[in-house]
Write a structure and sequence with these properties.
The structure is a single chain. The protein is mainly β. It has one domain: Immunoglobulin-like, CATH 2.60.40. The protein has two helices and 16 strands. The longest helix has 6 residues. The radius of gyration is 18 Å and the shape is globular. The chain starts with 27 loop residues before the first strand and ends in a 12-residue tail after the last strand. About 13% of the residues have low confidence.
């Protein structure tokens, strides 16, 4: 049965402030997992602003990914557990490959969105991500530089947010929130004013719908930088591998899974369609068929 996708946009609506609990190519990226002794290198992060100012660009433990590339999911042994289900800073993440992609301003769907763009918003924004799974659960960890921890939405202030989007069908689906009811996308949407991650579907602009099954879990941490004015968000989202009966939930056992990202930064006054996104899909080898695990040295 097709879910009637409602006429509701993915908005940064007002909510009370709360504290956190803590061109297409076909390259395939996978490289040996680094030992824990190299954790310090793996946690070097990019400077905010223009992508060409990215301080992590030369880090050998970070692989640059372009839209159209394929990345492999790391398998976590079933006898290894995070300190909590979605711990954003567990040591296990030091042993999972880190990828970097550049987010660019989303194409404006209305001229009012374009009016909000400041000159600095036109620049690319580095986003770092890691993907891992066990036999039962899929995890994605995101991190990015952010000069301020924005948790509330008021008349003049806007919260931070990030979303992961998966095409239900193939790469011909539009990366801009799907191509109609027959080619929708599944969206996992985290917002900084609460720890809950929304499980959404969309089939085009203005059709974002909250799904009946809210089975995406998440956690986050904002980490200030003692040496600069920048801080960094660390966000983990996870879901059981089995999607249940929902036809609008991403099938994380097929290969590849088209995946993309969206980012809202409150200090840049970003909300609604004013955001940075991946232009075209990154292909996710969700099966983790390479056979290497996070226990490998």
């Amino acid at each position: 049965m097709k879910l009637p996708l409602k006429n509701r946009s993915l908005k940064q609506s007002a909510s009370p402030s709360t504290k956190s609990s803590k061109g297409t190519s076909t390259k395939r990226h996978h490289h040996p997992l680094r030992p824990a002794a190299l954790a310090g290198l793996a946690l070097v992060v990019a400077a905010g602003g223009a992508a060409d100012a990215d301080q992590d660009a030369g880090n050998p433990n970070v692989t640059a990914v372009e839209p159209g590339d394929t990345v492999a999911v790391t398998r976590m042994p079933d006898n290894i557990y995070l300190r909590s289900q979605n711990d954003p800073d567990d040591l296990i993440w030091d042993r999972v490959p880190t990828y970097r992609t550049t987010l660019l301003p989303a194409p404006p769907v209305h001229r009012s969105v374009k009016l909000r763009f400041a000159d600095e918003i036109e620049a690319g924004k580095p986003l770092y991500f890691q993907v891992a799974r066990t036999d039962e659960r899929f995890y994605i960890r995101l991190r990015w530089k952010d000069a301020s921890e924005d948790r509330a939405t008021t008349v003049d202030d806007f919260r931070d947010g990030v979303a992961v989007q998966y095409a239900i069908n193939g790469v011909d689906t539009s990366y801009m929130m799907g191509s109609g009811p027959d080619n929708p996308v599944n969206i996992w949407y985290w917002r900084s004013d609460r720890e809950a991650v929304e499980n959404l579907a969309a089939g085009g602009y203005g059709s974002t719908t909250r799904l009946p099954e809210q089975n995406i879990a998440g956690d986050s941490a904002y980490v200030p930088d003692e040496y600069s004015d920048d801080g960094e968000w660390h966000v983990v989202m996870s879901r059981p591998i089995e999607a249940g009966d929902s036809e609008h939930a991403a099938n994380l056992e097929r290969n590849p899974v088209p995946m993309g990202f969206a980012l809202w930064q409150g200090n840049d006054n970003q909300r609604d369609g004013d955001k940075r996104v991946t232009h075209t899909w990154i292909r996710l080898d969700a099966a983790g068929s390479d056979g290497e695990t996070a226990a490998d040295g």
